[in-house]
Structures are given as C-alpha cells and as structure tokens.
TrEMBL record:
Record's protein name: Defective in cullin neddylation protein
Any GO CC annotation of this UniProt entry: ubiquitin ligase complex
Gene Ontology molecular function terms on file: cullin family protein binding; ubiquitin conjugating enzyme binding; ubiquitin-like protein binding
InterPro entries: DCN-prot (IPR014764), PONY_dom (IPR005176)
Ranges of residues in domain DCUN1: 20-90
One GO-annotated biological process of the protein: protein neddylation
Function recorded in the entry: Neddylation of cullins play an essential role in the regulation of SCF-type complexes activity.
Length: 90
C-alpha cells in the first residue's frame, strides 16, 4: 500500500493527485521502522526500502531523495521528513 506510485508519476493526470494520502504514506513509513524506534526509519529499514523500490542504497537516487526529504542524518528519515518529502514530491 504505497502512498503513490513513483513509476507512473510522469503519466499522472491532475485528478490522480487527489489519490495521494498522508495516512498511506505513514503506513508505508511504518513498514520500514522497527518497534524499538517507530518514529525513525534507520539503516535496516532503508535497505528494505531500497530493495522494495529497486534501487541500490549507494545509488545517487537515494542522495537526491534524502536531499528532497531534507534528511538531517544520512541513512535515516524521521516520520516528519518522510511525510514532508513525499508531500513535496507528489
């Protein structure tokens, strides 16, 4: 249950934007966090996220994503950074 599909972004129509959901983005974020720290997506979750989206963790795409999400620490996303970043990318 992704909050939106990156692969179809270029082909989306204006009405598709209404399907964006911060609730789904939060649920997606939770798929990559640990019960010990549910508010931070760390290195293990980042590795799983990269695997799920088909991008190597070392790929420059991840640096660009971290920049777009305004991540304060490399290899980590807070829930706030994740949500703001995805809202900005929609």
């Amino acid at each position: 249950a992704k909050c939106f599909d990156f692969s179809s972004r270029r082909h989306s129509k204006p009405e598709d934007i209404s399907s964006f959901s911060t609730k789904r983005c939060t649920a997606w974020f939770r798929e990559y966090t640990s019960p010990d720290d549910p508010d931070t997506l760390g290195p293990d979750g980042m590795e799983k996220f990269c695997e799920d989206i088909g991008v190597e963790p070392e790929n420059v795409v991840m640096l660009v994503l971290a920049w777009k999400m305004n991540a304060h620490q490399m290899g980590f996303f807070t829930e706030q950074e994740w949500l703001k970043g995805l809202v900005d990318l929609q």
